[in-house]
């Protein structure tokens, strides 16, 4: 699995969430995602970008175009230096919410992609990585 | 300030969301619609989302909220024109939007609202 190209963007405001959605859509189109694949990846990105802004106090999105043999994909990493998640397993449960959301952000995003990983340390921050193949 | 226009047509309010809304804009639309329903004495709200290429949990929640608020204000809501890829993604995301009526297009949406209003008027008359 190789990384063909990489980019980073800031996530601070709700306008940044919209910009992230648009950029992720462009990357998915470049990697030949079909319309449903694009929509799923962009929706997952929107949920995770909102988590970064709302709960992580802002952070960064890293985009990577991936290649693995004949298939191509997009990998997204959302990083913040916020309070962290004390119980990741609980946070991944449908309907669990610490704030004003619906509690679908993490669990929903996980269902919309092929690979999902989360690393969170209380007091240090959270990194969420998702990958979807075209 | 950026705003989504709300059009009045007879007893209806029509909203067509044509841009990728950021979260604050979605909240503004919810507030504006609530105020307009009362001000215009609207009986129904039609929200066209055919231009939206994404409905995430925030926008989904806004739509559910609008439907709940209009019901409390004695009005009806219908959401029309959801794209197939958006519908597939919403289901997988786990967003069910309870209480939100949907129709395939504006024509069918208006038919549905007219039928609901007629039914309600008939009930009101029967009660008198």
Question: Which characteristics define this entry?
Answer:
heterodimer, A: 134 residues, alpha+beta, 4 helices, globular, B: 128 residues, five-stranded mixed β-sheet, 52% helix
Description:
The complex is a heterodimer of chains A (134) and B (128). Chain A is of the alpha+beta class and 134 residues long. Helix content of chain A is 36%, strand content 34%. Chain A is built from four helices and five strands. Chain A has a five-stranded antiparallel beta sheet with strand order 1-2-3-5-4, with helices on one face. In chain A, a hairpin with a 2-residue loop joins strand 2 and strand 3. In chain A, helix 1 runs antiparallel to helix 2 and helix 2 packs antiparallel against helix 4. In chain B, strands 1-2-3-4-5 form a five-stranded mixed beta sheet, sandwiched between helices. The chains are: A alpha+beta (134), B alpha/beta (128). The interface between A and B is medium-sized, with 27 and 23 residues.
């Amino acid at each position: 699995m190789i990384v063909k190209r990489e980019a980073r963007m800031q996530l601070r405001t709700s306008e940044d969430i919209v910009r992230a959605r648009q950029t992720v859509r462009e990357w998915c189109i470049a990697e030949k995602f079909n319309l449903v694949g694009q929509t799923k990846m962009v929706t997952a990105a929107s949920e995770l970008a909102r988590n970064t802004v709302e709960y992580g106090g802002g952070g960064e999105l890293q985009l990577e175009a991936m290649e693995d043999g004949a298939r191509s994909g997009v990998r997204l990493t959302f990083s913040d230096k916020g309070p962290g998640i004390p119980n990741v397993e609980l946070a991944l449960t449908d309907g669990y919410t610490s704030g004003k959301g619906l509690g679908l952000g993490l669990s929903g995003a996980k269902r919309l992609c092929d690979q999902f990983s989360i690393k969170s340390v209380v007091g240090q921050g959270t990194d969420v990585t998702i990958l979807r193949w075209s | 300030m950026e705003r989504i226009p709300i059009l009045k047509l007879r007893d209806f309010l029509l909203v067509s969301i044509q841009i990728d809304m950021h979260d604050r804009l979605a909240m503004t639309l919810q507030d504006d619609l609530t105020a307009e329903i009362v001000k215009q004495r609207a009986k129904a709200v039609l929200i066209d989302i055919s231009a939206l290429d994404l409905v995430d949990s925030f926008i989904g929640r806004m739509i559910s909220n609008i439907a709940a608020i209009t019901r409390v204000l004695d009005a009806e809501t219908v959401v029309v024109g959801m794209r197939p890829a958006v519908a597939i993604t919403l289901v997988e995301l786990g967003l069910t939007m309870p209480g939100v009526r949907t129709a395939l297009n504006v024509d069918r949406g208006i038919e549905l609202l007219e039928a609901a209003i007629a039914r309600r008027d008939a009930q009101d008359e029967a009660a008198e």
